[in-house]
Amino acid sequence: MVAILGLNAFHPDSSACLLLDGKLVGAVAEERLGDRNKHTMEFPKNAIEWLLRTNGLRVSDIDHVAIARSPRANFLAKVNYVARNPRIGLDAVKEFLKRQQDSRISLSGLASLFDEDPASCNYQVHFIEHHLAHIASAYFLSPFDGVTAGFSYDGSGDFASAMAAKCEGNKIEIIDRVRLPSSLGHFYSSMCQFIGFDLFGEEYKVMGLAPYGNDEFSHELAKIVSFTTGGGLR
């Protein structure tokens, strides 16, 4: 039996899932357990514990741990951004290093977290770029097997806000990315805050209200969001 533990951690809506011999046997968001904090970024300890317990497993039974973030992804773009925006960039670097440290401690200490002997564990850790994980979660659970277009966009993840990919069989080939600071997701959140909603999490209410509105500001918004000649977003 091959056991794969998938994690979303140190990013809003932390969660965990478990695959046994390629079959998804469970997935749960951390906010549904423990302290019930909405959109929590905490390490999904309760979610992992629930998955292991309900499937009769221990950490020592896990062969692979995959986490939906890759610190090395878009590294040059990160460096260039910090160089151009040192005041904002330095704060981002501090946050990045903190998440790196938290991630390293949590992933290497899974056994200790559940009172198991670290020497009994031999799982491999895999860092998956944020948007690649999004596309994989949709494509590999879809009925498609031939050449399929994969597309993901949100606020940000691993310094990218969107990704286009070619999916075929069990392969995903990344074609292009939209990197920060360009982000439709951040733009949408900003507009939600501008019209009076709270921070992260209220976008869904605005989506629900949108069909009841009238298009009065397209010309103004077109000054803020535009397409590049290559089809990207700015």
Task: Outline the fold blueprint.
Blueprint: E1 3-8, E2 15-20, E3 23-29, H1 45-54, E4 64-67, H2 75-84, H3 86-108, H4 110-113, E5 124-127, H5 130-139, E6 148-157, E7 160-168, E8 171-179, H6 184-194, H7 203-209, H8 218-221
Parallel strand pairs: 1-4, 4-5
Antiparallel strand pairs: 1-2, 2-3, 6-7, 7-8
Helix pairs in contact: 2-3
Structural write-up:
It is a single chain. With 234 residues, this protein is α/β, with parallel strands linked by helices. The protein has helices spanning 45-54, 75-84, 86-108, 110-113, 130-139, 184-194, 203-209, 218-221; strands spanning 3-8, 15-20, 23-29, 64-67, 124-127, 148-157, 160-168, 171-179. The protein contains eight helices and eight strands; from the N terminus they run E-E-E-H-E-H-H-H-E-H-E-E-E-H-H-H. The mean pLDDT is 91. A hairpin with a 2-residue loop joins strand 7 (160-168) and strand 8. Helix 2 (75-84) runs antiparallel to helix 3 (86-108). The strands form two sheets. Strands 3-2-1-4-5 form a five-stranded mixed β-sheet, with helices on one face. Helices cover 34% and strands 24% of the residues.
